[in-house]
Amino acid sequence: LMRTGPAQQSTVCPYACQRRTTTANKNKRFTDALEVLVEYHELTEIEGPRVAYSRAASVLKSLPWTIESMGGTEALPCVGEKTRTLIQEILQYGRSFEVEKILADERYQTLKLFTSVFGVGPKTADKWYRRGLRSFSQILADPDVQLNRMQQNGFLHYTDLSRGLSAAEARAVEAVVGETVRTVAPNARVVLTGGFRRGKEFGHDVDFIVTTAEPGRENSLLPLIMGRLEEQGLLLFQAHHPSTLALKKIPCRRFEAMDYYSKCFLILKLEGSRVQGGGQAVPAGRGWRAVRVDLVAPPIERFAFTQLGWTGSKQFERDLRRFARVERNMLLDNHALFDKAKFLAAVTEKDIFAHLGLEYMEPWQRNA
Ligand code: DCP
Ligand code: MG
């Protein structure tokens, strides 16, 4: 007899931005498997299944119960036949054969390895794979491979960057960036965003928004901050993209499109002595490790849109935009919210949720 699942007692909302999803994922065994499928389709740039599996994974992450039988799973939104088969396999055998096949696939393994290097995306990884390259040493030894500056630094700092960061390390980075900003621009405001704002314990980088109340001055902030980091000997790598806001038509219709604010992608030197609880995370005998840091500097009147857009998670963002478009006939991106041609101003994230007619979600509830 099939047990009745809790899904039949409470309905699960179809959009991630309507569900409160904390980092306490009760269905990790299923979502880990789904994320392999998401990653596989991402790496091979197949859009349809990637979207379907990421939505399914996001629904399972939001459930306040652990799935222990198939009962009730048919009532879950975005959970289709393929996902249900996967859940069933895992319940029955403890593993999914499709996932195991992908994990053992040479192309998947190689593309995953190559894209784990800072500066290497799916296109470059695939190009190298098709040239017959299978390892870092082969890439570095190939005279025909031209690495850009970002990729050179990705290889140089690979061991540190591939390890990711703990929340304690992120706090130490926050202190360094905060001090730096206060030194060069005492009136500027700097706030943590990205995964660590959502309360994640581990992340691949630390993301910050910096802005100032003086109109136009936000564009000079990043060069000042990078200059000061350099003076302190903490800047290992920088790629600065000045604002292209004035040139662009907003809002942009695709989530994947980058925003047009001034931003920089950095590799910083984090000293072990700055990390609470000691520098165990730091390689012995060196006293520091490399960390990835992103800074974005929007004009103050766009701060709330930037904060909502950069806090993530990626699935939460995709569903916010889709909800705005499909359910409200509005356009939302990292710059603005439009109702037809009308710009809906916002000082805080709460204003944006209110414009959309959504209940406010705290950052730690956006781990969709
Ligand atoms: N983001 C964006 N535009 C960019 C860069 C990022 O809208 N040009 C958004 C997408 C993410 C969020 O900002 O939701 C943070 O991006 P990350 O890739 O840093 O993702 P997380 O911080 O959520 O996770 P992690 O850094 O641990 O991988
Ligand atoms: Mg991040």
From TrEMBL:
Entry keyword annotation includes Membrane: no
Cofactor: Mg(2+)
Binding, Mg(2+): 205, 207, 294
Catalytic function, reaction form: DNA(n) + a 2'-deoxyribonucleoside 5'-triphosphate = DNA(n+1) + diphosphate
UniProt keyword annotation of Repeat present: no
Molecular function, one GO term: DNA-directed DNA polymerase activity
EC number(s) from the headed UniProt entry: 2.7.7.7
Top EC class, one word: transferase
Record GO cellular component, one term: nucleus
UniProt family annotation: Belongs to the DNA polymerase type-X family.
Protein name as it appears in the record: DNA-directed DNA/RNA polymerase mu
Species whose genome carries this gene: Neogobius melanostomus (round goby)
Upper classification of the organism: Eukaryota, Metazoa, Chordata, Craniata, Vertebrata
